[in-house]
Amino acid sequence: MRKGEETRAKILDAAEAAVLAKGFGGTSIDELIVETGITKSGFFYHFRDKNELAKALLERYIENDERIYDEIFGRARELADDPLQAFLIGLKLLAELLSDLPNGHPGCLVATMCTQERAFDREIQEMNRQAALMWRRRFAAMFRDIMQVYRPREALDADQLADMVSTVLEGGIVLSKALKEPQSLPDQLLVFRSFVRLLFQPAA
Amino acid sequence: MRKGEETRAKILDAAEAAVLAKGFGGTSIDELIVETGITKSGFFYHFRDKNELAKALLERYIENDERIYDEIFGRARELADDPLQAFLIGLKLLAELLSDLPNGHPGCLVATMCTQERAFDREIQEMNRQAALMWRRRFAAMFRDIMQVYRPREALDADQLADMVSTVLEGGIVLSKALKEPQSLPDQLLVFRSFVRLLFQPAA
DNA sequence: TGCACTCCTGTACCGCCGGTAAAGTTTTCT
DNA sequence: AGAAAACTTTACCGGCGGTACAGGAGTGCA
């Protein structure tokens, strides 16, 4: 029972790295079993087909993603009582974490799967949608807290501001990969941070 | 000679749609020749291999992309002498164009190719990098023009602000695909527009 | 001790796909 | 009319996703 989960995790590790590097269609089961050190039959013992691998991959990724945000913004909340300060600290902590990744951000599975949507079934597309909605809910709650204390200088929707966090992260990942400049991602996040500070800064 | 280019364009059209929908690895040559109505040998007459197809695809995409930006921000420049107003008008025109796409944005080839980077050779990765650098140069020039007239309320780098345009576009594409809300992309662009207006708005 | 269950391996097979090779045919330009 | 361009036809190769099924090794427990 423990052994099985270990092998499964090894397959998922290899698959995640491969999918983020070459796309889902570009990742072969054969290369995964070579890297994991099992046989093809062993692979199909754990996953009925490639689509179920994708599902497991995405499920695990989203859980981990949520955990990271919980930690960072939970910690930020401990460091400041003020919701705006807490959010700004959270963005900074996140930027630092992204800056410390040795080879840059490996890529977002949600992004790779929704930009190759026709390669997956509806269940996966729905998981992707739910993930994006969870991001929205999380950050929209923070913006609403901020708006109860500070008046924004422009009337912007909390949901749209929340989506901006996801947008900057996803876009920053793409841009830093295209440019081959890993630092672009944390830099973009900090530019967004400046915008948020400006938005809620009281008029002089 | 004309006929050849026509067939080539038909293959590229089919390929672009398929790659943006399913990823490069998920797109088969067989499906392209069925849709185009030619034989497999006919395909290989036009493209030595799949990688050369990718190269031609990206080349055409980037040229078209540049043309669109030239048109939109050229037109914006005609409508306003002030560089800030021109840029804000350009963003609005772009948001309107994106809003009018019937099935949402089909996706960005630069993004799909750099999130599947290991599936392509160095030449393509370099083309991707140059495309992102061209975006940066284009928008950085606009921000520098703006900064010669307006003083930003926060000291932000013109290059990083320029990258923010690409970031919001790329991230907006991902988010609107994940959420299955095409309107998110133009909305995000308009949120960014508000930030830019706020940044260069003279202190009251 | 033995049985069941989990966790695999081994073997054999299928059809699709990317790609190659080479000869032949039609269409288009000059 | 002739050359060059733009294909078609046929035949083939190895890799990959996937199926089927038999067998075996390690573990937990009755």
Automatic annotation (TrEMBL), chains A, B:
DNA-binding region at which residues?
28-47
Q: Which Pfam families match?
A: TetR_N
Q: Which UniProt keywords apply?
A: DNA-binding, Transcription, Transcription regulation
Q: What domain of life does the native source organism fall in?
A: Bacteria
Q: What InterPro entries is this protein classified in?
A: Homeodomain-like_sf, HTH_TetR, Tet_transcr_reg_TetR-rel_C_sf
Task: Domain (HTH tetR-type): give its ranges.
Answer: 5-65
Listed GO molecular functions? DNA binding
Which PANTHER family does the UniProt entry name for this protein?
HTH-TYPE TRANSCRIPTIONAL REPRESSOR NEMR, TRANSCRIPTIONAL REGULATORY PROTEIN
Name-wise, this protein is TetR family transcriptional regulator
State the organism named in the record.
Answer: Sinorhizobium americanum
